[in-house]
Amino acid sequence: MAERERRKKPKEKPPTKMIWDEARIRAELTRLDGITGLNGGELPIRLNNARCTLGMFSYASPDNLNFTFSNYWFQNPDWPEESALDVIRHEYAHYMDYMQRGESAHDKMWRMCCLKVGAMPTRLYNDKLNDHIVKEHQRDEALSKQYDAYQTGMIVLHPKYGEGVITAIEGEGVHRAVTVDFASVGIKRLGIQWVDTHCAVLPQDY
């Protein structure tokens, strides 16, 4: 069971706005089924407004298996997507563990299931990790705005290849790549973060 040690929402807001309804939760459960060969994506999903329990896998009997998730968190658009995914995978690991031995606890067997499905093998929801994710989102948002200044036709000065003209920009956010036509070596494709750190931008009338 994913729990919280303190009743609080994230202090800071990430730039992404994600609402997790039943369909999105079930899509992730179904994706995990593709890893395990199980059928967690077909189980009933219950939604409540619990503040301290983010998710739960219940197994009253082999014929009564279900997941419960908290709308208080999953309907919060300022909650990081990574945190929501970790809670879903945490509970799926309980389901996987149960299917293997008929029960589940936060022990070695469950932690092995966590590693299989990509969940953090920790019992409690981690506020510090959540805050770190939020700060990473904020940093990436600031960098993305900085990279918006790059446009095709700009001239950049590479420390090794010299002057080149940006002919194309692909991707989004901090994961963009630029295609640069250098007079000395021809066309090169570079990560925009590398270009921003290591290259100078020359004025258009240079």
Structural write-up:
The protein folds into two domains: 2-144, Metalloproteases ("zincins"), catalytic domain (Zincin-like); 155-202. The protein contains six helices and nine strands. The protein has helices at residues 22-36, 71-74, 81-101, 108-117, 127-147, 192-198, and strands spanning 2-3, 45-48, 53-61, 64-70, 155-158, 162-170, 177-182, 186-191, 200-202. The strands form two sheets. A five-stranded antiparallel β-sheet has the order 8-7-6-5-9, with helices on one face. The model is unreliable at 4-16 (pLDDT under 50).
β content, as a range?
15-25%
Number of domains: 2
Described by the principal axes of the CA atoms, the overall outline is elongated
SSE topology string: EHEEEHHHHEEEEHE
Classify the fold: give the CATH topology of the largest domain.
Zincin-like
- Ends distance: 62 Å
Supply Rg: 23 Å
Mean pLDDT level: 86
CATH superfamily of the largest domain: Metalloproteases ("zincins"), catalytic domain
Question: Which class do the helix and strand fractions yield?
Answer: alpha+beta
Give start-end ranges of low-pLDDT stretches.
4-16
CATH architecture of the largest domain: 2-Layer Sandwich
What is the CATH C level class of the largest domain, in words? Answer: Alpha Beta
Number of strands: 9
Largest sheet: 5 strands, antiparallel
Q: In which range does the helix fraction lie?
A: 25-40%
Continuous helix count? 6
Q: For the largest sheet, list the strands in their spatial order.
A: 8-7-6-5-9
